[in-house]
Structure formats: C-alpha cells, structure tokens
C-alpha cells in the first residue's frame, strides 16, 4: 500500500492511496464504484423530484444531481475510451457483451 501526499501554496493538499484520490485541493474525496443503470435511475429520479422539492432541500438535491451527472459523464468518456482502444476485437466483444448484460439485468430487476 502506497500513500502519496503533495502540498502546494496555491492548490493545498492532495493525497493518494494505492492510486486512489483521497484528497484534492484540501477537500477529502472518495473513489467508489457505482453501477451505471442505477446511476441513470437516480439521475432520472432527481430530475423528476427536484422541481417539486421544498426550497430548503432543492439546493442540495441539485448538488447531488450535478455530482451524479458528472459521474455519469465520466463513465461515458471511459466507456468510449474502452470501445475505441480495446486491444483486440475479442476483448471489445467481451466488454460489450458484459456491458449489455449488466444493463439488461439491472433493467429486468426493476420490472
């Protein structure tokens, strides 16, 4: 296990543990996986819920929405990178089959 910490007068403290970002610009963070189908559902739920939310909660729901949306957009970039940079056609086929199965399984469980 490796820890790496860097300090800058302008940027504050950043820290990594085993290549995972633990703090950035003096703000603790977490690296955590999210299932994409659930992430899509949470985003949709927030889109539908935020307009009717009491004003006292709307700001925090919007922050959550935009954080989840940013995570989803990062997924799209990573997904596109895998599709365009897969080492072999067999690797790409395996990835796309697993991706489709995961999305389909998550959708089937909701019905």
Q: Describe it for me?
A:
The chain has 111 residues and is α+β, with helices and mostly antiparallel strands. It has helices at residues 36-49, 55-85, 89-110; strands at residues 3-8, 12-17, 20-24, 27-28.
Feature tags:
four-stranded antiparallel beta sheet, flat, about 110 residues, about 15% strand
Tell me the span between the first and last alpha carbons: 42 Å
- Shape descriptor reads flat
As a whole number of angstroms, the C-alpha radius of gyration is: 18 Å
Structural class: alpha+beta
Integer average pLDDT: 90
Poorly predicted regions are: none
What order do the helices and strands follow? Answer: EEEEHHH
Order of the strands making up the biggest sheet? 1-2-3-4
Strand content: 15-25%
How are the SSEs ordered, and which strands pair?
Blueprint: E1 3-8, E2 12-17, E3 20-24, E4 27-28, H1 36-49, H2 55-85, H3 89-110
Antiparallel strand pairs: 1-2, 2-3, 3-4
